[in-house]
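hey can u run this one w/ flavin-adenine dinucleotide bound, need the structure tokens asap thx
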Amino acid sequence: MALARGLFSAIIFVFASSRSGLNRHPNRFRWQAAQAPNPPHKGEHAGDPSPQMLFEEGHRSFFVRENPKGLFYIMDMSSPTTPEVLNGSDILVRCLQAEGVKYMWGYPGGAVLYIYDALYKQDTIQHVLVRHEQAAVHAADGYARATGDVGVALVTSGPGVTNAITGIATAYMDSIPMVIITGQVPTPAIGLDAFQECDTVGITRPIVKHNFLVKDVADLAVTMKKAFHIARTGRPGPVVVDVPKDVSLNKTAFSYPETVEMRSYNPVRKGHGGQIRKAVQLILGAKRPYIYTGGGVILANAANELRELVNLLGYPTTSTLMGLGAIAASDKTFLGMLGMHGTYEANMTMQSADVVLAVGARFDDRVIGNPKHFAQVERKIIHIDIDPSSISKRVKVDIPIVGDVKDVLIELIAQIKESTQRADPNALATWWNQIGEWKKRECLKYKTSDEVIKPQFVVETLARLTRGTDCYVTSDVGQHQMFAAQFYPFDEPRRWINSGGLGTMGVGLPYAMGIKLAKPDADVFCVTGEGSIQMCIQELSTCLQYQTPVKVLSLNNRYLGMVRQWQQLDYGSRYSHSYMDALPDFVKLAEAYGHVGMLIERPGDVEGALREAIKLKDRTVFLDIRTDPTENVWPMVKAGQGISEMLLGSEDL
Ligand SMILES: Cc1cc2nc3c(=O)[nH]c(=O)nc-3n(C[C@H](O)[C@H](O)[C@H](O)COP(=O)(O)OP(=O)(O)OC[C@H]3O[C@@H](n4cnc5c(N)ncnc54)[C@H](O)[C@@H]3O)c2cc1C
Ligand SMILES: Cc1ncc(C[n+]2csc(CCOP(=O)(O)OP(=O)(O)O)c2C)c(N)n1
Ligand SMILES: [Mg+2]
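ok here u go:
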């Protein structure tokens, strides 16, 4: 007791000097370094399981804790608003509430039971119990892609984490803001091969923007603040917060910081004025300009700024798979998606342009094809990207502009408006004429049929029936994904939700389910294949429990179609293990899960079935659509080829 009082006097001394400042500070309840003459005993409050003590004197109370280096910290908890003493799980929930989290997806287990207990006691955050942790992360990721908010998932230690890995890597590759809370074995058990222990921080390190292992409950709130800040700022990405079970139980005074500062993390938003000036000169001096846009425009919520720039310049535009919708597909400047399955005109324009303005697009290998072929043409490249590591990674960039797309475009537009320089109208007219010639190839034309359902026809019909409505389209990975990207004209950002970077089969249904929760009035369609859908089909159960009715359009070609296409083109038509035999009866399966199943085998039935499915607003409908098993995705740039070396159809084989 005497020791404790001695410590208290020391604390008061340190504290008194900063007290008035603290009182005015919005983050009044903060840990302050303090000096203690003697290590304290556990005081009167030794019942508290955390290595911290609460000292009270009169109306004043202080929390004291010691870090492993023997340094002491104090927190004043005195009136007027004494912070609550909460356990780690309640703190976690408070942090999520403070971040405005409305939904989270997860799956319980021993290491997170205190957290689940805390969730039970509140009703502002809706937790969705998925059927597999991979789907929890995908659903939260889909939610993030559609809303722009941070997606949140919660999984237990060990197998919970390893099941979540595919979801985390998927989000990482497409720069999606997420916070994934993972349970961990109690801190004393870490490293002892404890039950359901895995090195979460080690396993996830290469697939996260950042990760944390919280060893002390006193660090939990600030860690959560950092996690959300890191996930949503700069180049967004998933952040893992690993919470050992004892940390979720231990108590501390809760205060959520309003701001957070990290010396080593300060993403640049504003582009360099001088670089933007140089870019303006190049853009306005171009004879064959091209605006190449990507996922960064969507992530930056900069579609309006991009559209303003395009209106101002009237230059041809294209988009990557990840940027579709930022420029309206119906915009007259839009040449379609570019890349491996891009349009003829989009790729030819890329290869022939003299100035390329890359906006939030990272020159992926699926976009530029063989880099040597790409480099054969002299062109100047301006690249706007928030992540300096994206710049000159695959192609040499002439004018890098590091910054947020929105901020940079605002400045770029302003400088273009101020400039006395004008684009050369004659050169532009010649350029548009050339592009018009390329368009005449009508590269997306396909052979229609009255006998067999063409996958392109299904997507076109969906597009026709949903034109102008509030709807979202997710996809899985394969031919159906490319057909959806090519044949569904996305006119708005965040309406096309798919996995581009990792190309993860199985995302489509959880994505749809995540979006439907956030957008209950919208229609959500999942365009999938019979291979992909089986990778997360168990989520049909989640859709029923949480009443998130989605429409699954399974383009069932009985093949792992994209694999079959490559085997046809590059492996002498040896279809090694790409044929799907013994498929389930998807109609019965859908019904078994409590949904509506439809089998569609003839082209004439496609529209009627889709109309009926859309009418069943409150039901999940699974449409098993038997499509042409031999159909291929054209155009195609084969691996190792240049982007202008496209195959436009089977006649080119
Ligand atoms: C089967 C299959 C086929 C595919 N075929 C094609 C194809 O034909 N064509 C195609 O385009 N893709 C295709 N892809 C997708 C491809 O793999 C890549 O995912 C995609 O090309 C990358 O798109 P992106 O360049 O827009 O980059 P993203 O992955 O969307 O990256 C965004 C970029 O913007 C930056 N950024 C993020 N936020 C901001 C901000 N606020 N301000 C500034 N910059 C920001 C990031 O740093 C990053 O460099 C295919 C995928 C699959 C699975
Ligand atoms: C998890 C995962 N495993 C393997 C692959 C490789 N892969 C890409 S497309 C594809 C076939 C997809 O088949 P299906 O879902 O039926 O779509 P289809 O191509 O027939 O339209 C495969 C196996 C992948 N992208 N993801
Ligand atoms: Mg298939």
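The pocket of flavin-adenine dinucleotide (ligand 1) is lined by residues 174-175, 235, 294-296, 299-300, 320-323, 337-342, 360-362, 364, 366-367, 385-387, 390, 404-405, 477, 481-482, 500-501, 503, 562 (CB under 6 Å). anyway lmk if its weird
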